[in-house]
Amino acid sequence: MQLTVRNVAKFLNVSEQDIYHLIECGELPATRVHDQYHFSRTELLEWAMARRVHVSEKLLDEEEKDTTAVEPRLSDALRQGGIFRDLAGGDKPTALRSMVNVLRLPEDVDRELLFRMHLARETLASTGIGDGIAIPHVRNPVILQVAAPMVTLCLLATPVDFGAIDSKPVFALFSLVTPTVRSHLFLLSRLAFVLRSPDLHTLLLARAPDEQIMAEIERSNASPPAGGEKLRQKGHQ
């Protein structure tokens, strides 16, 4: 279900006027249909993540929500997807191709098409969220017939200019492949939270052993996000 301005204002804990201001400034991704704006849940969560803005957990609610489903653990998804080191970088296309090549995907997935979709997405806006980290994704979540949700961490041999929000070169890529949109949104929200941990960032920079990274993710993820952060807007700082 597409979100309205009223929905987004509620999720971000700001006024509807603030939302319109962000749209007019080109800050907030929205689609205009006749005289109304609509928003994608996935794009809104990714936008908030890049700006360290907390959003309500209600953003994860789906009309088709299965109340019996168990939400995936981020650490389990990372073990499923794996951690890959010293991947070729040099430039953004090379880094993206290296990432796509190591993803544990079903055999019938067209990796070349997936790579080109990632590349096309980067022409719209960088997926670099700052602090040397990017979460490459296509326009919509990568939803495939996989046994379990996967989060893949790719550590590049050399940092790459990703055009990130803070202009810092990217050295770590996180990729999500899930069987449902809801699991994608849930894991993305968990990832947004744990990536705020300075200890995790230090471990990633140091290319720490897999188990140390896993342990820190489990520790950080043990405490759910609390309280909303004040939305920082350009021109309203």
Please explain how this structure is put together.
There is one protein chain. Helix content is 40%, strand content 15%. It has 2 domains: 5-60, no CATH class; 74-221, 3-Layer(aba) Sandwich (Mannitol-specific EII, Chain A). It is globular, with a radius of gyration of 17 Å. It has helices at residues 5-12, 16-24, 41-50, 74-81, 92-102, 111-124, 181-194, 198-205, 210-221; strands spanning 31-33, 36-38, 83-87, 128-130, 133-134, 150-160, 170-177. With 237 residues, the protein is an alpha/beta fold.
Order of helices and strands: HHEEHHEHHEEEEHHH
CATH topology-level name of the largest domain: Mannitol-specific EII, Chain A
Q: What's the average pLDDT? A: 83
| The CATH homology group name of the largest domain | Mannitol-specific EII, Chain A
Walk across the major sheet and give the strand order.
3-6-7-5-4
CATH architecture designation of the largest domain: 3-Layer(aba) Sandwich
Enumerate the spans where pLDDT stays under 50 for 5 or more consecutive residues. Answer: 225-230, 233-237
> Strand fraction band?
5-15%
Shape: globular
Distance between the termini: 32 Å
CATH class of the largest domain: Alpha Beta
Class from secondary-structure proportions: alpha/beta
How many structural domains does the protein architecture include?
2
- What level of helicity do the residues show? 25-40%
